[in-house]
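Give me the fold.
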Amino acid sequence: MDNYEKKDENELESIIKTGDVEGDGIHCISIIGQIEGHYILPQDQKATKYEHIIPLLVSCEQDESIKGLLVVLNTMGGDVEAGLAIAEMIASMKKPTVSLVLGGGHSIGVPLAVSARRSFIVPSATMTIHPVRITGVVVGSPQTFYYFERMQKRISDFVCAHSNINEEKFLSLMMNTDQIATDTGSVIDGHEAVECGLIDEVGGLSNAIDALKKMIEKNEA
């Protein structure tokens, strides 16, 4: 193996491990599978660990060589607290950020998708919008339902504040009883997500990168 092949292998390994795309100052973070929070998921399940993503976002914000962040999503959702924590961090970054939904941006993936300054979704991707769910023992008391209500309000407030969808439309999608069997909510595709104002634009990787480069140029001007 010559030096060029070794260099290519090292660059590929670096991209896979860190998400760093050398040359353009763009850093890529992928959020895939289920978002793991305070509880460890089974080893045979694809997961994004919030304790890995959070310091990586801090590093991106502080690293002067990184000019912009691309967040690629294909997630089924997961831990609400962890997902909101990641979304809030992305939304509070000073550097240009762009999100791209591939495959799916379900459940708590919705706030993550809208947390970037500009959001894209491919036509075939879907997003599931539904009320907060919980597994395990639930205490049947007014306090429990009040907790659910407050948690749901946190999510809807964040989504509406970082997208062009209004609260009435978002809640109607969330409480829809016609689409999901034995459940409440809506499943929308790429074009529907843009039409309702949840996502900014239908587009793929090249569109997302072009938009991010323009934001970087404007930010440096």
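The chain has a mean pLDDT of 87.
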